[in-house]
Amino acid sequence: MSSSIQAYDPEVDAPAHHHPIYDYDSGPPVDRGKFAIWLFLATEVMFFTGLIGSYLVIRMGSPAWPHPKELLAVDITAANTFLLITSSWMMVRALDAIQKGDKGGLVKWLGFTILGGSVFVGVQVYEYTVLIHEGYLPNRDLFWSTFYAMTGFHGIHVCVGVIWLFCVWIGAVRGSYTPQNYVRVELAGLYWHFVDLVWVLLFTIVYLM
Questions:
Q1: What residues contact residue 144 under an 8 Å CB cut-off, 6+ apart?
Q2: Gap between the Cα atoms of 82 and 199, Å rounded
Q3: CA dist 61 to 57, 143, 169, 175, Å?
Q4: 165, 181, 188, 193: which has the highest count of C-beta atoms within 10 A?
Q5: Per-residue pLDDT of the chain (209 residues; tens, 9 = 90+)
Q6: Alpha-carbon distance 186 to 57, whole Å?
Q7: Does residue 69 fall inside a structural domain?
């Protein structure tokens, strides 16, 4: 009787094991950029919620809180608020333009949005200048400390938004966006709408209540 001895090949002779196959490229049906901006905006919601909540607690705990109309330029700020809301509408027009392939419309409406945001910041800086000149400094009392904190943090966010929109506008001038590739415009728009919405809340609470 003859027998043959063969070499053991682990890749061939080892018992088969079934391993799950993972697809790392698949994910939620949402663009990664959109997911990131929504996650970022969620953190911003928590930040402003804490800021507004602290303001309301301080205000309700202060027996003698001055009426905002006696110290603040409510009418001018109301007009400035309308301007910021209008800039949000302009951002909608910009996004609609590129979705329709109107690159010139994108450049135009983005430019108007940037202009509206810049004027808003300019009016706020003017308001600060007048108040500080009249002696209303952030360390004067709780009213002014909270006023500058609330409006100042929002003003920083508006400045960031204007810079972001300007970068997007440069891309629009260069023709970087198409009806199939406009996600950067959309992300900047989401941030801008958030900034506008927060200001409507702050204006109502700080200037009108």
A1: 131, 136, 137, 138
A2: 11
A3: 6, 12, 46, 55
A4: 165
A5: 444 555 555 555 555 555 555 454 555 566 788 889 999 999 999 999 999 999 999 998 888 888 889 999 999 999 999 999 999 999 999 999 999 999 999 999 999 999 999 999 999 999 999 999 999 999 998 999 999 999 999 999 999 999 999 999 999 999 999 999 999 999 999 999 999 999 999 999 999 98
A6: 36
A7: no
> What range does the domain containing 122 cover?
74-209
To the nearest 10°, the Cα dihedral for 6, 9, 15, 18? -150
Asked if 192 contacts 147 with a C-beta cutoff of 8 angstroms, the reply is no
Say which amino acid occupies 148. Answer: Y
Residue 152 token pair? 């100042």
Could you tell me the pTM of the whole model? 0.83
Q: Is residue 137 part of a domain?
A: yes
Token pair for 130: 């007048």
Secondary structure of residue 4 in the 3-state scheme: coil
Dihedral of alpha carbons 148, 150, 151, 154, sign: positive
Positive or negative, the CA dihedral 167, 169, 173, 176 is positive
Q: What CATH number has the domain bearing residue 164? A: 1.20.120.80
* 187 inside domain: yes
Residue with tokens 């949000």: 88
Count of the separate structural domains present in the chain: 1
Q: Which two tokens stand for residue 7?
A: 């070499």
Give SS3 for 181. strand
12 within some domain: no
